[in-house]
Amino acid sequence: MKRKKFIEVSGKSLLGLTVLSQIPVKSMAIISEKNIKSDGGTMIEVKTKRLFLEDTWTISRNSSDYKDNVFVRIEKDGVAGYGEAAPNVRYGENHNKTTDRINGVKSLFEKYDLWHYVDLKDEIFASITDQNCARCALDIAIMDWIGKKLNAPLYKIWGLDKSKTPLTSYSIGIDTIEVIKKKVRAAEKYPLLKIKVGKDNDEEIIEAVRSITDKPIRVDANEGWKSKEVALEKIKWLQSMGIEFIEQPMPSDMIEETRWLRDRVDIPIIADEAVKTVADIPKLAEAYDGINIKLMKAGGPQEAMRMIYLARAMNMKIMLGCMIESAISISAAAHLSPLVDWADLDGNLLLREDPYQGVGVEKGKLILNDKPGLGITGEF
Ligand code: MG
């Protein structure tokens, strides 16, 4: 039997027991729930699934073999919308809190019509203030439902041209030099690479990658350089290696130091950890050339759209990124991607097995299908 690479942490079927036995499973606190609502019956189900990575994923601050993502299914009038949350420890998120927050706003679905999704989103944001990924899961599910009800893919509802989707970069995490080389070779079909650095052997990593490929490379330090002098020296060196841009060189609160840095380097500096929602953008405009928008940080596609328009108005470059996610949220982001300069929507490509199918990738280009809503298939 083919080994299932993901399991439902809280579900009845614990597939992939060989994997499970190697990894301690935390409490089975999250249970799939069904909740029939009175206003015509909105049913909301929440489920946590453990998604295993193909390889151990290491960035400057942590390392993981799997992610426990929270999935939401909203059903009304015979149509179901799907959403996903990818809780991130960097932002104080976890799957238990995320599930609690989603369960905590179910009453809003009695009060608001799903068609009034703008008002509903505002209410969800007012109610959930500490788990943006929970906001995101609900917003994605609502937008999927809207698309399915209108029988149109989201990119069409948003007036976007799917031929304008960008290429996505493919990310290489921090690892031994031999493994990094192996991963770069295995990523041959992807025309753009994003390389994680921020430990003490950055130069060795970049030299190893450059010894194999002359593809465009983007570099993400994940706040790994702790002083502006170190960051300056690193970026000057990266420029000599033909790097396209640098993402989050220093800790997110070092805005003044980043502004200092920006005056002294030639490649764009992109904010990631420093920017979550639209409210963060104005204070960053002097320090960064662009922002990395992620649905999980933003709280869903509606907020991401607002961020895109504000960043454009402030003449900032826009990157659309992701966490480790399934095709549900990667597809949601991909529907917005015709609006952005750069995409880094590879979270599902790093999974051993994605429970869902949605946006495709051909020679690095994001390929949206014409199914309604997110255009995803797969069992909840
Ligand atoms: Mg980043």
Question: What would your notes on this structure say?
Answer:
By secondary structure, the chain is an alpha/beta fold. It folds into 2 domains: 12-151, 2-Layer Sandwich (Enolase-like, domain 1), CATH 3.30.390.10; 156-367, Alpha-Beta Barrel (TIM Barrel), CATH 3.20.20. The protein contains 13 helices and 14 strands. The chain has helices at 17-20, 95-104, 108-111, 117-127, 132-150, 154-157, 177-186, 202-210, 228-240, 255-262, 295-298, 301-313, 327-336; strands at residues 6-8, 43-58, 63-76, 79-85, 170-172, 193-196, 217-220, 243-247, 269-271, 290-294, 317-321, 342-343, 360-362, 365-367. It has an 8-stranded parallel sheet. A 4-stranded antiparallel sheet has the order 1-2-3-4. Helix 13 links the parallel strand 11 (317-321) and strand 12. The longest helix has 19 residues, at 132-150. It starts with 5 loop residues before the first strand and ends in a 13-residue tail after the last strand. The structure holds magnesium ion.
Ordered list of secondary-structure elements with their pairings:
Blueprint: E1 6-8, H1 17-20, E2 43-58, E3 63-76, E4 79-85, H2 95-104, H3 108-111, H4 117-127, H5 132-150, H6 154-157, E5 170-172, H7 177-186, E6 193-196, H8 202-210, E7 217-220, H9 228-240, E8 243-247, H10 255-262, E9 269-271, E10 290-294, H11 295-298, H12 301-313, E11 317-321, H13 327-336, E12 342-343, E13 360-362, E14 365-367
Parallel strand pairs: 5-6, 6-7, 7-8, 8-9, 9-10, 10-11, 11-12
Antiparallel strand pairs: 1-2, 2-3, 3-4, 13-14
Helix pairs in contact: 2-5, 4-5, 7-8, 9-10
The protein binds magnesium ion.
